[in-house]
Amino acid sequence: MSTTPTDPYAGTPKIDVLWLSEPDMIEAGVADSAACVETMEETLILLAEGDYRMAGASANSHGAQINFPANPEHEGMPADGPDRRFMAMPAYLGGRFRSAGVKWYGSNTENREHDLPRSIHVFVLNDAVTGAPKAMMSANLLSAYRTGAVPGVGVKHLAVENAETVGIIGPGVMARTIFASALSQRPSIRNLKIKGRSPKSTERAADWFRENFPQLASVTVVDTEQEAIEGSDILIAGTSTSKDGPSGFPYFKREWIKPGALILCPAAARFDDEFILSDEANLVVDYTGLYNEWFNENGPDVTYEDLLGIPGNRWWDMKEEGTLPEERLVNIGDIAAGRAPGRVNDEQIFCYSIGGMPVEDVAWAFDVYHNALDKGIGTTLNLWESPTLS
Prior knowledge:
By secondary structure, the protein is α/β, with parallel strands linked by helices. The chain has two domains: 15-60 and 88-143 and 362-384, ornithine cyclodeaminase, domain 1 (2-Layer Sandwich); 151-358, Rossmann fold, CATH 3.40.50.720. The chain contains twelve helices and 16 strands. The chain has helices spanning 22-27, 33-49, 140-158, 173-185, 199-212, 225-229, 273-277, 288-298, 302-307, 311-321, 332-336, 358-375, and strands at residues 15-20, 52-54, 64-66, 85-93, 99-107, 119-127, 133-138, 165-169, 191-195, 218-221, 234-237, 262-265, 281-285, 329-331, 349-353, 379-384. The longest helix has 19 residues, at 140-158. The relative contact order is 0.19.
């Protein structure tokens, strides 16, 4: 993959943009989980080093979101509903990437009734010097695979080497790409347990795993969270928030957690505060700056209890309350770079909170774009030969 920096003004004022459809993205390697884990590892190290910018005054914002009123006064305005929003997620990432970009998506749960995904994504990759767009791409798979690969970095550094059993609570799209990334880092995985919300959809998910991962010795549907958790070396929390708040989140009771387990938390999950405060819990986050920004934007308790349910937000609330020392929260990028210790024995329990950040989209879009250039994939669109106004 050729990513050597070139003169950003070469060939100007003409500007061409590469369009990559979803089939183009697949051909260019967007679904290569192992490669995506490596790219996300680089990204998380750059985050920990500070070589990035995101939105907001602190440069740590997840993005800008448009919500709608429950009862709009104006004709044609959408009404609030489950996952009803638009969101822009801009970022700049340094290192070898040195690019900016923005993911833009609209989301509506009703889409699923019409054979559409809940959210529909596009991504624009920009030159960081001229600001010109270099590529526009279909981004549902881009988002899904980078979302799966960030937990995969945790598996690389924090899972026991001989991990064999994975437990999933909430076997949706996110859990599927996380599992693919986990398997790329621990090919020793042989057994999968799944706990879903309804028997019919859970059995469909089990069939999907059997079909896509035939190397597994067993794929078992279980009835309770306890069954999914007990005996699992790696656990994936993949459910959305609950109208009941934390009491409705998947519950990871200490007595159920196997010594040596890694718990991946990119979605709603609940732990007892006593366990989190104990020496038994090793707490890792994708990046502390994100949780600090969410706290500043939403205030205490809101992000965890009412909005996202991601455990790192609860941990940050505890840090702000003064009950949890900030040094207990370790960036995965510091572990990956060797600046902080990771696993030192097979008895340690790690809880890894993942919030998701637009720098991750920039990184994976950059690599897929360069793969496409090298392979001659995509359609060239002309922005202009020369700008009318300059």
